[in-house]
Amino acid sequence: MAKGSEGGSWSPYLAGGLAGLLAIVSVYATTLVMGKSAYLGTSTTFVRAAGMIENTFAPSHVSSNEYFKKEKVKMDWQFMLVIGIFGGALIGALTGKSFKLESVPPTWSSSFGSSILKRAAWAFLGGVIAMMGARLADGCPSGNGLSGLMQLSASGFLALAMFYGAGVVTAHFLYTGKGGGKKKGGSDDE
Amino acid sequence: MNNEQILGLATGIIFGFLLQKGSVLRFDKQVGAMLFNDMTIFKFMLSAIIVGMTGIYAMHDFGLITLSHKTMNIGGLVAGGILFGIGWAVAGYCPGTAVGAVAEGRWHAIWVIAGMLVGAALYAELYPFYKRTILAVHDMGKVSLPELIGVNHWIVMAAFTFISLIMFIIFEKRKI
């Protein structure tokens, strides 16, 4: 599988560097427009979205929940940012002709087969665990990782080390050995 | 939409576009970094951080913006970090990339998003319990690494950049 060159993709160094510029402009722009510096992040939006969904059938439960009160269930700057990510990724995929309908990720199917139902069940479970963890850590790889390290936050360094360390161990357990997940270079050394 | 929402939407569109162009929205890239066979997401993240931190600290030193550290809550970061890492390896996406992946046609990420919404709702229910237990272990407050170790932030940034560049050289040499 060719890396980096497929479907009109850019060098990750270039795309990343531009994302860094975007973060700078964004912090300044939010300071001007909102009177408060806001940093890129996404996972709080999942809390707000969950609150909005629950609001449709149990509004009193949402309004009395301590965590929803703390994070405030509303369509704020970050909520629109997450919607924007969808739009921007769609534009990128269509203009670069890299849009592809995929029902099971290749790395997954080489270890666990191509059952959509099986993938759906595990992906759902993974999502539940990941979000519980992200909320406990007060941020995901965008909020704690990108924005945290850009500010040199002590919490960002600790969070990213934990995220990646646990990810490495789990991924090796899941995707190597069994049915020969792709074994290419250096999975035995540090 | 108010100005705040328009700004968020515009920022998100550019961010999503760059994530897509950098190919970081793929399950295989995310898991590839954990298996040490494709470091694309590190190339993207470290490049973004090097550029971002330089500009952000420059603006901070000129008093144009304020920093917004997340609190150094040891219990939450360690327990939550490990939980997130396990879930991330299984799901193959973090929250932002799951949303972008669906837009790229990788519609299997919709299961991850559904799980994350349920996880968020569950967390809201369990929050009072976590607040009394895991989150009550030890909180060092909103602190930066330079403050913690007592070194000027520009020195920490120079060291961070230097280490990142060495990592880039290793990635390119090994073609990962």
Kindly summarize this structure in a few lines:
The complex is a heterodimer of chains A (190) and B (176). Chain A is 67% helix and 0% strand.
Keywords:
heterodimer, A: 190 residues, mainly alpha, 2 domains, 9 helices, globular, disordered N terminus, B: 176 residues, 8 helices, 72% helix
What does this molecule look like?
The complex is a heterodimer of chains A (about 190) and B (about 180). The model of chain A is unreliable at about 1-5 and about 180-190 (pLDDT under 50). Chain A starts with 11 loop residues before the first helix and ends in a 15-residue tail after the last helix. Chain A is built from nine helices and no strands. Chain A has helices at about 10-35, 45-55, 60-65, 65-70, 75-95, 105-110, 115-135, 140-150, 155-175. Chain A is mainly alpha-helical. In chain A, α8 packs across α9 (about 155-175). Chain A folds into two domains: about 1-100, no CATH class; about 105-190, no CATH class. Chain B is mainly α. Helices cover about 70% and strands about 0% of the residues of chain B. Chain B is built from eight helices and no strands. Chain B has helices spanning about 5-20, 25-35, 40-60, 75-90, 95-105, 110-130, 145-150, 155-175. In chain B, α3 packs antiparallel against α8 (about 155-175) and α5 packs antiparallel against α6 (about 110-130). Chain B starts with a helix and ends with a helix. Classes of the chains: A mainly alpha (about 190), B mainly alpha (about 180). The interface between A and B is large, with 142 and 132 residues.
Radius of gyration of chain B in whole Å, from Cα? 18 Å
Number of strands of chain A: 0
- Strand-pairing-aware structural class of chain B: mainly alpha
Total count of helical runs of at least 4 residues of chain A: 9
Structural domain tally of chain A: 2
The ordered H/E elements of chain B are HHHHHHHH
Helix content of chain B: over 70%
Give the DSSP E fraction of chain B (strand runs of 2 or more residues).
under 5%
Distance between the ends of chain A: 23 Å
> Helix-strand pattern of chain A, N to C?
HHHHHHHHH
Largest interface: A-B, 142 and 132 residues
Low-confidence stretches of chain B: none
Q: Please indicate the percent range of residues of chain A in DSSP E strands (runs of 2 or more).
A: under 5%
Largest sheet of chain B: none
Mean pLDDT of chain B, to the nearest integer, reads 97
The number of helical segments of chain B is 8
Main structural class of chain A = mainly alpha
Distance between the termini of chain B: 43 Å
